[in-house]
């Protein structure tokens, strides 16, 4: 085992593969070819004298040896990044926390929490990124983010099956709602009956999303007619406002709905609850993480108690 020949590039590639879940996605995120990524991983594995990535049909994940190497590699890469920040005159990393968040959380909850944190703890520096729940769970494992806001739907399983389990805290649990054009017949009442959703036109997540049907009411007994696809929540809500179809929406986004949209509960079927989770690796969190988590809890509490 000899790590003296391992390059920083190799460590960054390993982190990207662990975070993205596939060689192809890692190559795209880094601007490399897939063969270049494979060569870098092979080089790091030779130096480690162990297999660091488990190749599976649905992608790759870190082995036990890979988690050890990734934990140490993250420390090295963070120190290199900190040096670059210090040399360029940026604030030091002592008060920095790296946050990952879902698109729906980024619409209202995250901005409110960060605004409050700037007032209560101005020395805490937050850098953040958007992602899906699987991608953010991988980023936590890879050490490229410190804390994440994840989504969970029934039966509320853990975000991944790796060990040790992520430390999870439920910030909110609210019913999934339906966004309806204000002029639509379904918008006349105070709720929508699930039976009236048959034959409707839907605005769903783009085909590149993790769930092609995100935006369609779960459990419909027909093949839905999807007329528009969009990943961005606000884009979907503005399409609803334009009368282009219906879409599902977390209850917490009701306040962000533009004029021309009614956000209504759905009755007559199983309750479609959705949880927003605060996730991190197990172990004592750093002080900046503690302070950011407190701000996120406060913002979530305000969203839950709001109209």
Quaternary organisation: single chain
The percent of residues in helical segments reads 25-40%
State the shape.
globular
User: At the first level of CATH, what is the class of the largest domain?
Assistant: Alpha Beta
Please give the largest β-sheet: 7 strands, mixed
Q: Could you tell me how far the N terminus lies from the C terminus, measured between alpha carbons in angstroms? A: 60 Å
Radius of gyration, CA atoms, in whole angstroms: 22 Å
H/E element order: HHHEEHEHHEHEEEEEHEEEEH
What is the CATH superfamily classification of the largest domain? Answer: Periplasmic binding protein-like II
| SS-based class | alpha/beta
Helix count equals 9
User: What's the overall average pLDDT, rounded?
Assistant: 87
Strand element count? 13
* CATH A-level architecture of the largest domain: 3-Layer(aba) Sandwich
- CATH fold naming of the largest domain: D-Maltodextrin-Binding Protein, domain 2
Strand proportion, as a percent range, falls in: 15-25%
Q: How many separate domains?
A: 3
Q: What low-confidence regions span 5 or more consecutive residues with pLDDT below 50?
A: 208-212
Describe the structure.
- Helix 1 (8-20) crosses helix 3 (34-48), helix 1 (8-20) packs across helix 4 (64-87) and helix 6 (109-120) crosses helix 9 (287-305).
- A hairpin with a 2-residue loop joins strand 1 (53-56) and strand 2 (59-62).
- This protein has helices at residues 8-20, 23-30, 34-48, 64-87, 103-107, 109-120, 133-142, 233-241, 287-305, and strands at residues 53-56, 59-62, 96-101, 125-130, 147-152, 167-181, 192-193, 201-204, 225-229, 247-250, 261-264, 266-267, 273-280.
- Mean pLDDT is 87; it is low at 208-212.
- The chain is α/β, with parallel strands linked by helices and 307 residues long.
- It has 3 domains: 8-85, Orthogonal Bundle (Arc Repressor Mutant, subunit A), CATH 1.10.10; 93-172 and 274-305, 3-Layer(aba) Sandwich (D-Maltodextrin-Binding Protein, domain 2); 175-272, Periplasmic binding protein-like II (D-Maltodextrin-Binding Protein, domain 2, 3-Layer(aba) Sandwich), CATH 3.40.190.10.
- Strands 3, 4, 5, 6, 10, 11 and 13 form a 7-stranded mixed beta sheet that branches. Strands 1-2 form a two-stranded antiparallel ribbon. Strands 7-12 form a two-stranded parallel sheet.
- Helices cover 37% and strands 23% of the residues.
- The protein contains 9 helices and 13 strands.
